[in-house]
């Protein structure tokens, strides 16, 4: 490699943020490196004991402690109103997400509207304000629903699968979804909507118990069974955050909105 090429490579590393070498002197790669010394034989290692975290549910807890999922289901079942459900979710301490979030994000809109939308999880704006879908994707959703005559104040009620923001806006894990699902199903039962709209793959796959992606699930009506055994029609559609990243998909979202509009008009 020429001196000019080496200098160009060095400039590139500086642009990428490299500020220091890993060694004080260059490594002479012409000298064979000595093999690391073999570990001295010793007694077989015992597996490390499971970490026990008092007050937290998970692997390593004593068998006498109820698992977090059981406590979530019990708290959800005891809630006999939306305010009681919100209080139960605020009380639930079985998820680390509660410790990293700023606010519990419960719901927004009109519970009595008959139309309930369920998204994925709060983002940064939602976590800061304690309301779902208030950021850029929420503003797009409001405009989309407004195009068919719907508004939060008069026409729909909206929430998420998770009430707490995952760090860094990452996708919720399967374990987190399963943990909060009893609260979501109880939320639906208490709000008693006549129609559900499932925004995005996380919501659709969780509530429809499906492994199919949102592009296969969208555009048609499914059924969701609530915690009290009620069966509700549910329309799966694309999440507005996905539409911001993929504007060409707005055509499919518009078709879903028209399908929703026809169903609402016929009730």
- Percent in helix: 40-55%
Structural class call reads alpha/beta
Order of strands, main sheet, comes to 1-3-2-4-6-5
Write down the overall geometry.
globular
List segments where confidence is low: pLDDT < 50 over at least 5 consecutive residues.
12-27, 39-66
Largest sheet: 6 strands, mixed
State the order of secondary-structure elements, H for helix, E for strand.
HHHHEEHHEHEHHEEHH
By DSSP, the count of extended strands is 6
The amount of beta strand, in percent, is 5-15%
Mean pLDDT: 83
Radius of gyration: 25 Å
How far is the N terminus from the C terminus? 75 Å
What is the count of helical runs? 11
Explain how this protein is built.
The protein is of the alpha/beta class and 267 residues long. It is built from 11 helices and 6 strands. It has helices spanning 3-15, 68-78, 82-91, 97-100, 124-129, 136-146, 174-191, 201-208, 214-217, 240-245, 250-265; strands spanning 108-109, 115-119, 157-160, 195-199, 221-225, 231-237. Helix 2 (68-78) runs antiparallel to helix 3 and helix 2 runs parallel beside helix 7. It is globular, with a radius of gyration of 25 Å. It starts with a helix and ends with a helix.
